[in-house]
């Protein structure tokens, strides 16, 4: 499947099912060449919500000028509150071939993975919900290609070059293993499945995540005390 963007419209898709918990995975090949101003998104979000109380987990690929690397922008929204950004460069060219990206969320943690390497973990560190966690609002998978040249590339200073349109990103091999939500209830076919039963990243997976974060992370909200006026979000002191 290919998504296209021109100066009149973008494009996107959504999964048929919605899930309370799941592992969703897809192969993506990003827009090649001068992709400045464009955003290719792979994310899960509450499908139906009222007001500003939705849950969402984002993997957004921020385009750039030819020769400059993509930025993978991640964020987690709980009850409508985000501001949990972590950003990464990738250790490969994501435009020449398909690479595999996945989002897993279960009762214990959220894990973002690139080519089988975990890059980010957000743990459910507070069962009393003083640190909000997506646990009771079903979410669908979405993919999209859209214009965000007001912020996506160098803070919006580099605009989309529409002479390069249409921009195209490709998606394939979608898989989902999860607790499907329907008719007001969810069904989890196998709570012993590794994606559901895992409680934290450890062992080799932890080493891989630490390697990615040491070498390729370029922004972590938990390190940005100035942004939060010296008082970091509660989860930042609890190994998130």
From TrEMBL:
Active-site residues annotated for this sequence: 56, 60
Enzyme superclass (EC): transferase
Any one GO biological process: cell wall organization
Domain GH16: 1-171
Posttranslational modification: Contains at least one intrachain disulfide bond essential for its enzymatic activity.
Alphabetically ordered keywords of this record: Apoplast, Cell wall, Cell wall biogenesis/degradation, Disulfide bond, Glycosidase, Hydrolase, Secreted, Signal, Transferase
The enzyme's E.C. designation: 2.4.1.207
Localization in the cell: Secreted, Cell wall; Secreted, Extracellular space, Apoplast
Domain of life of the organism encoding this protein: Eukaryota
GO molecular function: hydrolase activity, hydrolyzing O-glycosyl compounds; xyloglucan:xyloglucosyl transferase activity
SUPFAM superfamilies for the chain: Concanavalin A-like lectins/glucanases
InterPro entries from the UniProt entry: Beta-glucanase-like (IPR000757), Beta-glucanase/XTH (IPR044791), Beta_glucanase (IPR008264), ConA-like_dom_sf (IPR013320), XET_C (IPR010713), XTH (IPR016455)
Glycosites: 64
Entry-linked PROSITE patterns: GH16_2
GO cellular component terms attached to this protein's record: apoplast
Function: Catalyzes xyloglucan endohydrolysis (XEH) and/or endotransglycosylation (XET). Cleaves and religates xyloglucan polymers, an essential constituent of the primary cell wall, and thereby participates in cell wall construction of growing tissues.
Homology family: Belongs to the glycosyl hydrolase 16 family.
Name recorded for this polypeptide: Xyloglucan endotransglucosylase/hydrolase
Organism: Linum tenue
Upper taxonomic lineage: Eukaryota, Viridiplantae, Streptophyta, Embryophyta, Tracheophyta
């Amino acid at each position: 499947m290919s998504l296209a963007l021109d100066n009149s419209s973008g494009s996107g898709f959504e999964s048929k099912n919605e899930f309370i918990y799941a592992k969703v995975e897809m192969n993506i090949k990003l827009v090649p060449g001068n992709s400045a101003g464009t955003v290719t998104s792979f994310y899960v979000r509450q499908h139906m919500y009222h007001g500003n109380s939705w849950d969402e987990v984002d993997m957004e690929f921020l385009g750039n000028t030819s020769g400059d690397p993509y930025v993978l922008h991640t964020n987690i929204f709980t009850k409508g509150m985000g501001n949990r950004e972590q950003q990464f460069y990738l250790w490969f060219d994501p435009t020449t071939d398909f690479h595999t990206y996945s989002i897993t969320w279960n009762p214990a943690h959220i894990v973002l993975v690139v080519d089988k390497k975990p890059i980010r973990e957000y743990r459910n560190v507070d069962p009393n919900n003083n640190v909000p966690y997506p646990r009771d609002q079903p979410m669908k998978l979405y993919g999209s290609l859209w214009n965000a040249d007001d912020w996506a590339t160098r803070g919006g200073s580099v605009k989309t070059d529409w002479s390069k349109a249409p921009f195209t990103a490709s998606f394939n091999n979608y898989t989902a293993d999860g607790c499907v939500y329907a008719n007001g209830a969810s069904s989890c076919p196998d709570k012993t499945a590794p994606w559901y039963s895992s409680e934290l990243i450890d062992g080799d997976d932890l080493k891989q995540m630490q390697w990615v974060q040491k070498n390729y992370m370029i922004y972590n909200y938990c390190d940005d005390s100035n942004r939060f006026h010296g008082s970091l979000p509660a989860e930042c002191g609890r190994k998130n």
